[in-house]
């Protein structure tokens, strides 16, 4: 069986998805990497990052209301949010921020008609109406080009996430990353996720963030003396929080030892028992269905339903770590 046709999401839904990835709470006090000292003062740079973040909020709001006039899906989309217009916008902004103009190598890849549409849309968003926004764009474009741990591709939209942590001199606490990730969700669900994070960080698990086609905060037990990249941690993950166009906010568990704690599983609610029994893996091989990214793990939506099984999830993950029934571990 093939993966099946990809049904692209309406541009308004894509706009909201991307807006949710922009950090809602940027701290006032943090040190900036020395490489930016020659550009502006720390105070001005931090103010400009917030100004650029606010500009992105406006950009996504305009995308939701007017994007259908500009953003058209390709004939053969590669994902649910594959709009070339967004890639053109991103690369045009990087060019302006990094080079101070549309660079020849990049702009040559954008057809003249698409360049015109991008400029019209940016004008609709009030760009460039603020020196602070332009400074923020410059700083974030440098960070996007020079400081990312992952390779920058033509068709990625990382700049539009306003990943201010790239310019910080000190390492960011993973709990701060998680809180930003959770910001659109109800408080009870935030509390559940934060408690799960703290529980397994205290048990020695390693946490890392990756952004590819989805935003993932992954947790793995690492037995390695070398420092692993976020992508390495993701490949070894036991569970993760994920946000994607396909599934929204979810918890995924890659359970591999369920045969060793069957007695614990029998005490779980039927809904969770059935989820675990179904397992995970290639949808085509397991269930003769089209690909639904089942290899990512056993999926549990991060919504109100997860609160009813919060304690069972802790027991489940404890058992996966220990390889046997160890309910009651704290």
Please provide a written account of the structure:
There is one protein chain. This protein is of the alpha+beta class and 330 residues long. It folds into 2 domains: 11-167, no CATH class; 174-322, no CATH class. It is 44% helix and 8% strand. It has a 5-stranded antiparallel sheet. Mean pLDDT is 89; it is low at 326-330.
**Number of domains as seen in the coordinates:** 2
Report the major sheet: 5 strands, antiparallel
> What's the tally of helices?
13
User: What is the H/E order?
Assistant: HHHHHHHHEEHEEHHHEH
Structural class: alpha+beta
Number of strands: 5
Principal-axis shape: globular
What is the terminal separation in angstroms?
45 Å
Average of the residue pLDDT scores: 89
Looking at how many chains there are and whether they match, the oligomeric state comes to single chain
Helicity, in percent? 40-55%
* pLDDT < 50 runs, ≥5 residues: 326-330
Classify the beta-strand content into a percent band: 5-15%
Report the C-alpha radius of gyration, rounded: 22 Å
